[in-house]
Amino acid sequence: MTINTMAKGGWHRDQMSCFRKMEKVIVAMQDPDMGMKMRNQRLLITVIPHAMTGRDIIDWLMKKYNICEEEALHLSGKLVRYGYIYPLKEPRSLVLRPDESPYRFQTPYFWTSTRWPASELDYAIYLAKKNIRKQGELMEYEKERYSVLHKRINHTWDFVVMQAREQLRASKQRRKADRIVLECQEQAYWLINRPPPGARNVLDMGLERPNNTARVTVNSEYYKNEIETCKRALGRNRVKSSICLEGFVKYSEQYQNHDPIMQGCLPSNPWISDDSAHWTMNLETVPTPTRLRVERWSFSFMELLNDEMGRREFMTYLEKEFSGENLCFWQACEDIKHGESSRIVEKVEEIYRNFLAPGAPRWVNIDSKTMDKTLSGIRHPHRFVMEDAQMHIYFLMKKDSFPRYLKSDLYKNMLARAIVPQETKKSVFPFMRRQRHSSPSPAQVATQATEEGGNAKGAGQAGTNSAAGSNV
Amino acid sequence: MGEMEELRKEMENLKDQITAARKTFQDTTLQEAASGVTVVGRVQLKTRKTLRGHLAKIYAMHWGTDSTLCVSASQDGKLIVWDSITTNKVNAIPLKSSWVMTCAYAPSGNLVACGGLDNMCSIYNLKGKDGNVKVMRELAAHTGYLSCCRFLSDTEIITSSGDCTCVLWDIETGTEKMVFAGHQGDCMSLGVSPDFKFFISGACDFTAKLWDIREAQCRQTFSGHESDINAIGFFPNGNAVITGSDDATCKLYDLRADQELITYQDSSIMCGVTSLAASKSGRLLLAGHDDFNVNIWDMLKSERVGVLAGHDNRVSCIGVSSDGMACCTGSWDSFLKIWN
């Protein structure tokens, strides 16, 4: 069974990998040993060989892929929607019913991927055959399409009719059973590739992206650039994967209590309870912040700076230590980086006057090399002219002032004062139970798993949260 | 031709060396690294709100930085700003071109942007003086469709395009500030790092690239996908890139290890990933697929822990609100759903 993987038209390539995967499943289902048990199905008075029930399909998928029923339904639904399996009872309803409804495999000749894309000519021949065979019994939408095609490919219409007649003649020579099967298969194919109006079109890939003519030309210039990039890439520093993965693990654990999707939130999740207390408590301008928020400030310097209130608190602390100008300087540099281009020159001058000039009122302590570089850069101000100086001050604050702030009374008092919201009581009406968490707390689930004989890995770890120590 | 062949061989050789160098830094498996991590268990999110109002396929959505406002773009030619908690439409902006493929909300909340087959990025001012929402700028220079755009601030925006480049624009003057060229296929999506110094782009050449915004240089390239990369995002701490592709897998590439560390795949998932978002702690990865579902992955254990099945057509966009409270999915069935 060869699967046509040559892309016919660039933009259809993305469907191909999906088809290939489904075809693998289909092939496995038809495996003589491990595949599905086919039987003869009764459909009214006819007996259809090599058919299977929807129930059989679900059971086989559940067993083979070790998935739950819901998932198997979803997967088998896909196989039907893409035409690899077709229903015998109601051919136009492309759904998989998990009961005794009979289904059959589509022959690879009629797989969507094999004859991709379905051609207008073939569709015309199909409609012509139907028209000839059952005079005037085309469905309304088929009649419309038939006449549209007739106009569009009028020049080859003789060929269409001739082909239709030829194919009908050939099919008459087949056994009746085979003829019916072929008709079913062909009908199934066209239901997918030319769906009736209103039916979902699985082959719809969205907006037709225009063909790209401005592609990269592969010439010696291109290779030379690539070689340069590769040489640079070769020499870069790398970190061991164990350290990197550990970093992710630590980060997730640290933020677990701050992740409302995983842990729910106090006093209640506004989406569930319709009570926006949580947001009110976490506004920029509240007099007392919540405990979680203050804890987050200790996770990293950027967390502190990104929170307006945190930044204000830090500024208060710095001013006590007479180093407030560092944060002011940093903020002013940020303002240049992200602000309007038209004001860059004036802002740079202001920074120079306030922070860098000899005898400036809020002079910042930068090493002489960076200072020289910055001063010469100021003559031609641009958005990033303060970058080096800003970085210097940033690291100064991060390595020195920030850790001391976290140990200071100012921070500790804030943490102690911070609110831990009470969980809102359940609704007064007992029959209107509102769920607090949408999903059970991981700790609970883990405990259940343990009780059911799973591993005993720390179910109690879920709630711990290291607030101490900065971590960037 | 001899010279070209020599150059090509040299390039291939260097690429092999890079692969070998990367391998030497793989000193553990994911199982070992995450062995001490508590199991998450089944995650079941419920639809809390359904945002109805679009009349055609929704192609993109983006949360604002406050907790409840989001913007969505649809093929019906409308850009709608929603107050998702009340499900009210705050703004319904009619677009000049209905072939829109992306939208973005500025961090300040003042601007929204969109673009698509018109090859332009249109910026709208939501806080105009007379209360009307008007086009503020039309950024036109791309020679291909606009696939994604993200604001850095009210004055700068980055766009990715079907012309294989990404561009940093100065919104005030409406001009290109920097062009990031290097991809060999349509750029399909981009993501900005939490510190706004870098951005990543995923393209139809199956690679993802990390760009230094300031120096307009590609710092790192990640490959491994077998098909177009449709969605890309940063891990919340900014140290890793997560990509979603038409090959039905998602991958995590670490920036410091300079390589792929984790692949999220399952033999029963066959349809391509259209969009992805990470929960606030980075523990959960939500990936929207062509087959109408969203799969939820435990990022540290690389196991599927849940499914969101509520749409009747492809899930085209997904986003987690900035406070991590809720996840919003947009679909070709014209509805947006809020889950948590």
Automatic annotation (TrEMBL), chain A:
Residues 300-415 form the RGS domain. GO terms for biological process: G protein-coupled receptor signaling pathway; intracellular signal transduction; negative regulation of signal transduction; regulation of G protein-coupled receptor signaling pathway. Residues 438-450, 462-472 have a biased composition (Polar residues). GO terms for cellular component: cytoplasm; neuron projection; plasma membrane. Residues 32-107 form the DEP domain. It comes from the Eukaryota. This is Regulator of G-protein signaling 11. It comes from Eleginops maclovinus (Patagonian blennie).
From TrEMBL, chain B:
One of its GO terms (biological process) is signal transduction. Keywords: Coiled coil, Repeat, Transducer, WD repeat. WD repeats lie at residues 51-92, 139-179, 180-221, 222-263, 273-307, 308-340. Residues 1-31 form a coiled coil. SMART domains: WD40. PROSITE patterns: WD_REPEATS_1, WD_REPEATS_2, WD_REPEATS_REGION. The keyword Repeat applies. It comes from the Eukaryota. Belongs to the WD repeat G protein beta family. This is Guanine nucleotide-binding protein G(I)/G(S)/G(T) subunit beta-3-like. It comes from Eleginops maclovinus.
